[in-house]
Amino acid sequence: MEKLVIVFAKNPELGKCKTRLAKSIGDKKALEVYKELIQHTAKTIGTVNASRAVFYSEEIQNRDFWDDTLFQKKVQGDGHLGQKMQIAFEWGFEQGYSKICIVGSDLFELRTSDIEKAFQELDQTDMVFGPANDGGYYLMGMSKLHQNAFLKKAWSTETVLEKTIQDLQGLNLTFLEAKTDIDTVEDLVIYSNFHNYIPNQILKELT
Fold first, then answer.
1. pTM (predicted TM-score)
2. Would you give the end-to-end CA distance of the chain in angstroms?
3. CATH code for position 93
4. What angle in degrees, to the nearest 10, is found between the helix axes of 27-45 and 112-121?
5. Which tens digits make up the pLDDT trace of 118-160?
6. Cα gap 86→108, rounded to integer Å
7. Range of the domain at 91
């Protein structure tokens, strides 16, 4: 296929994922929420008409939420987040894909239509972003490598997308609908209407 979706995901290990959320609800409950996020992301990406790859933060796992028959499995490269993403995009283009989107695994709002829309936009734009309401982005797509997208910056801050746009001056950029990553307990409460994806007991304790 010409299209590839890359998912960046942390290995779901106690105390190593959703650390900001864990400060409010504890490591165990934060891990439960992250597993729900992974499950939702894997299910959503699994229905996209494209090839799929998951890049683990630590090590490849089998027989997990990322179906071995649907997802190519890799480990993220070294360096800051931008360098890790650049390595992933370079790998994808080396495999012969002509359109690549990368997404995170922190979004209960992610829908198959978001990914499909991003690929459609790449027919007429240089890059496409899915803005996150915290100032970052939940999706980035391109049809050729634009290295300035990966320059070092203050990752995981409210200026990430703004700085990235500044680094990409001269390119034609398109933006999808803004959505909210699940990083804090406030995010969980705001999006409690997505209770089908959040462990019921945790939701009851938060609302």
1. 0.92
2. 44
3. 3.90.550.10
4. 60
5. 999 999 999 999 999 989 999 999 999 999 999 988 887 889 9
6. 25
7. 3-206
